[in-house]
Amino acid sequence: MAVYHFTYHAYRSWRPDHPRGYTKGEQILPSDRERAASYDRKAYQPPVRFDRFIQSVLVWGAYDICQRRGWRLHSAATDPTHLHVVVSWRGFIPWKDVRDRMKNVLSYLLGRATGQQGRRWFVRDASRRRVERRSHFDYLMDEYHPDHRGVKWREGMPAPVAPPGVE
Questions:
Q1: Residue 18: closest CA among 51, 47, 52
Q2: Could you give the percent of the chain with pLDDT greater than 90?
Q3: 3-class secondary structure for the chain?
Q4: Is there a contact between 135 and 76 (Cβ–Cβ < 8 Å)?
Q5: How far is residue 110's CA from residue 152's CA, in Å, rounded to a whole number?
């Protein structure tokens, strides 16, 4: 069984001038004000912030996607700049297919819920980390995800309810 922790960052939420630096591909680069200004000039849309409504769409959407595909959502946690999910599945499905399918469907749901079809909601790729040890899984479930300040869900809680305008 594959178990992964995916993080989906809101579009333009982690800028190159962030004090902790930024990533480009697999590289972690130091903070760069000039590159941030260049990114701003090239951007077609304003930055995205995940308010409570959008967070509820993301959590419900992740749950619904997993239910429909026979995947298992263990946990979802949000804050204004990103969504974390811990998801597992049986059989051979490349992690990239799971990550990308979830991102595409979540984008569709957000567009429908907000009336902003065609909006870019997320950065190009989501980060991923395979969860191979029980200690890592327990840390995500018991410490890391609960520490987030937005809408959260984990196994054992009642199923998330679809926000108005989503279904």
A1: 47
A2: 71
A3: CEEEEEEEEECCCCCCCCCCCEEECCEEECCCHHHHHHHHHHCCCCCCCCCHHHHHHHHHHHHHHHHHHCCEEEEEEEECCEEEEEEEECCCCCHHHHHHHHHHHHHHHHHHHHCCCCCCCECCCCEEEECCCHHHHHHHHHHHCCCCCCCEEECCCCCCCCCCCCC
A4: no
A5: 17
Across 10-24, 47-61, 91-105, least confident range: 10-24
CA distances from 61 to 15, 44, 99, 102 (A): 26, 26, 13, 9
The domain segmentation of the chain, as residue ranges, is 2-14+48-154
Encoded tokens for 84: 């974390």
Q: Could you give the CA distance from residue 71 to residue 104 in angstroms, rounded to a whole number? A: 16
Examine the pLDDT at 93 and tell me if it is beyond 80: yes
**What CATH architecture is 2-14+48-154?**
2-Layer Sandwich (3.30)
